Amino acid sequence: MTLSIPELPLLHLSDDxxxxxxxLRADMMRDRWALQLRDAYFNGEQLVRDLGISIPPQLKxxxxxxxxxxxxxxxxxxxxDLEAFRxxxxxxxxxxxxxxxxxxxxxxxxxAHLDALVYGREYLAVGSGxxxxxxxxxxxxxxxxxxxxxxxxxxxxxxxxxxAADTFxxxxxxxxxxxxxxxxxTVMCLPSDRGGWEVIDRDVHNLGVVPVVRMAxxxxxxxxxxxxxxxxxxxxxxxxxxxRLMGMEVAAEFFGAPQRYILGASESAFQDADGTAKSAWETxxxxxxxxxxxxxxxxxxxxxxxxxxxxxxxxxxxLYARIMSSQFGLPPHMLGYTTDNPASADAIRSTxxxxxxxxxxxxxxxxxxWQDAMRLALWVRDGxxxxxxxxxxxxxxxxxxxxxxxQADATVKLVAAGILPAESDVTLExxxxxxxxxxxxxxxxxxxxxxxxxxxxxxxxxxxxxARSPEVVDGDVSLG
Length: 480
Prior knowledge:
Layout: H1 15-43, H2 68-77, E1 82-87, H3 94-102, H4 105-119, E2 121-127, E3 136-140, E4 145-150, E5 155-164, E6 176-181, E7 185-191, E8 197-204, E9 212-216, H5 232-255, E10 260-263, H6 280-284, E11 301-304, H7 311-328, H8 345-351, H9 353-382, E12 392-396, H10 404-416, H11 425-430, H12 435-468, E13 470-473, E14 476-479
Antiparallel strand pairs: 1-12, 2-3, 2-9, 4-5, 5-6, 6-7, 7-8, 10-11, 13-14
């Protein structure tokens, strides 16, 4: 009789897995400083380099902040509103909505988009849910995660996440954990007492693909990782504007209060009644100066130097605002630059054209990432890949800012021309209704159809009853 010994999962990382972990960790640590630098500019925490010329040592601790990087990034992110997932063939998409709602993706998506714009990339990890719950889809920061990418296959070959240990895992304070994502399994590890890493769980899913999707921003063929919206040009202009603001602060300290001069005054003009010399501040704030004539009978001359005019520096900052607006594709008024003649509504929408186009490009790129993540979630749930013929679509809010009247007018014209059917969901979408509003309209239409059917049935029933009822014709009773 032949005994079969079951294959037990490894309680430690194999040599190949350990080499892969070291390679991925080195890749993640190499990029962390650059990512943290972008994060500092976004949060207004960057250190502006002092040239050591115009700033006195007493004001070394002065820190000026200008929030243009945050304004530029958030202005783009605020136009990326993910609303729903649906099947492209129009079939019932309740299963997609269930997964999205269970993972709160419509709220998490805004944070994922923001990180992708700030860091240049974001990761979507897919895992098995607990018990009967839907699969898990989580957005992971590139500060804690990296992905090994095969450009030819356009898919990841391995991924690593290093973060604080989860609360349900018994671990020491501030202990780190590793999650290694492989095409056939997901490995969770904690630091071992003997050094290295100890495997605490192996989720063998046998998908054949790594359940991690990279949401990259501003990709190029030679750089699939992505680039941040906070470019070196943006950082340079931000530093220059901060130095100008710091120069204005220094000028305010030295020249904000006009300097005065007195010629031909005696020493007693700067003393109290008891002969004690006044302080410089007491002398300066004196509103009324009682000065005596000298022995020749001449009155001392009192005058004031011209105060510092910050207009020159404010013009330079306005110039920086215009340069920054061109970098982000923003209308200048969003960065605080204004003119004497305010722009009209049409002019403002015209200046937003570049921002709208940038938003549409991000919607196309990020939408593909969300679609891939949703397909992976269905794969994890069902144990087999979804049918490739059934394509998943992401529904986004219009990134442009058309008026409600313009949208309604364009939709009515398309329906009147017969291009769109009045009952189509596309018509509601073009009219500017959100996904929730479109669902309510569909529900109202179904109720209206049901009511109409019931009314027709009731009318038919009344007609049949009337046909069967006896009628009196010339005094005779007959059945109709």
